[in-house]
Structure formats: structure tokens, C-alpha cells
Amino acid sequence: MSDKDNLEKHELLSGYIDDQLSPRQATELKRLLNNNPQIDAELKALEQQCNLLRALPKESAPEGMIEDIKIALERRFILDYNCRHQDSAGRWGLVFRRLAATAAMVLIPMGILGIVVYSIVRQPQTVQDTMPVMSPIPPIATHVSNPVPLPEEGTVAYSALLQFQAHHPVQCRDFIEKKIHTLGLMDMTQIRALSDRTSYKITASRQYVVGLIRDLQELWPQTEKATYALLAGQGKDKVLVEGIDFKQTLEMLNLADFKTAAELAKTFTEQNSQRDLAANPDGSPLDNPSQPILAWDVRPTEIEQDTSDTICLVIEVLGL
What we know:
Order of helices and strands: HHHHEHEEHEEHHE
Helix content: 40-55%
Strand content: 5-15%
Largest sheet: 6 strands, mixed
């Protein structure tokens, strides 16, 4: 214990012997006696000493003893004043530490909030930096012999590009991003934003990609033109479908036999060409052209194939 604690302890013991303790001091002494057996022993020794002193004959105090006591009390008062002065000098350091702690409590949350806001504002650019380096994809050509090159994917069994041309690309982009977020495909999607187009590269199982296209059915009426380019794999020729509609897109995605992809794309291109000719205002017989009869079923969208192969689909929105 320190000298100050010893002094307070002796004051409590002396006050108890002289029956001069206040209720608070009595409670403090009782606590010390319960927690420290040594203090209890000291109290018993003081009581014995007090009894011995009281048994001695009384004598008058020596001359000058009162003056000595006054001098000792004055010296003690002066020493206590110096201690209090030193303590007051140390209070300024405590006040400074409190101010520093308060400033840290205010500035640290503000700094964290600033970092979060900066990361949110910087997020599109960060996502763009994670995309592989690719040259800007030009608009899909209007001839089957000149399709758009797709990114090479060695780890996927299927790669395709679905391009939308629209007068309001911002609304289309918001609609696509909302559907991607709703289906939980954000971790499987890489976004690349250029000055005239935005690309969404989705690498996932076929069933997730087909589910996304089903939710994007409302996107076709909002666009002027949709074009689909397919890359079956190494050593395969690219195929292209001009003006592809929603159902044709599902059929191309659900296609399991890539050998028939080129023939199916050619059939869809012919159908779309006849559909464009049906817009003739003269009311010619070409308004409702008959559909060609194919040797295989080209409407398998009613029964979705249960397949889990990974495919890569790049959805691109191009502003007109």
C-alpha cells in the first residue's frame, strides 16, 4: 500500500479507537476489516495498546508539546498544498488526453464513412478494372459471314453475345442490372462500361442464364434490334442471328447439340427477314408469310433442359 493509503488506514483505526468516525468512515473501516485480516490484527493491537495506556497514571503534558504539534500540523499542511499543486499541474495533461480521445471518437467514424462512400463511388471503375483486357466490341455486322468476335473462354463450354441496340440505353442498363441483382448473379457478372455501350459478362450454369433471359423478356419491346452471336468452342464456326426475339434466344441457349446451331441460326435469320418484310403497308401476301417446316423441333422452350454446364453470355447494350 502507498503512504497515503497507510495514512488513511491509521486515521480510520485511530478514529475508531476514539469513537470519532463518521458513518461513511465506519462503513469504509468495516469493509477493510472484512477484506484484510492484517488490518483486523492491527485494530486489535491498537485496542490493547489503548487499554494499556488508559491503565497508566495520568501525567501533565511536557512544556512545548503544543507548539511542536502546531509546527508538525503546519508542515503537513504545507506539504499537502505542494502535492495538490502538483496534481493540478497534471490535470492539464488529463484534459488534453480527454480532448484527444473525443476527437478520435469523432474523426475515426467520419474517416470510415468517407472510405465507404469513396468505395461506393469508385465501385463501377473498380469492377471495370477487374475485367480482362478486351478491345472494344464493335456493333454486330449485318452479314452472317462477319459476326462479332467473342472473348475466348477456355473454361466454359458455351460462349455467346447478345447485343441490344436502343435509343434509351440508360433505361435498358438499369433494367438489366436490376434483374441481375434480383437473381443473385452479381458475383458471376463482370461489368464493362464504355462511352457508347455497356457489357455484362455473365459466367454461370445454363439454368441461371436461361432464368435471367426469361426475366429480361420485357427488354425486347424497349430496344430497336437484338442480335445474337454464338461461339460453340474451339474449331467451331461462329453463327449469327439478326433480329433475334425472346423465344429464339431461349431456344439458342437451350440448344445442347452445337452441330445444329448454324442451321438453326440460319433458319431464325430467314424467319426474321420474312418478319421484317411483313411490315409492308400495301397489304401484300408477305404480311403473313408461312413458316418453313423444319426436320427437327425448334420450339423446345416449353421444357427446359436440366443441364448444369457452365456457359458465358455477354449482354451488351448499345446506344443509337
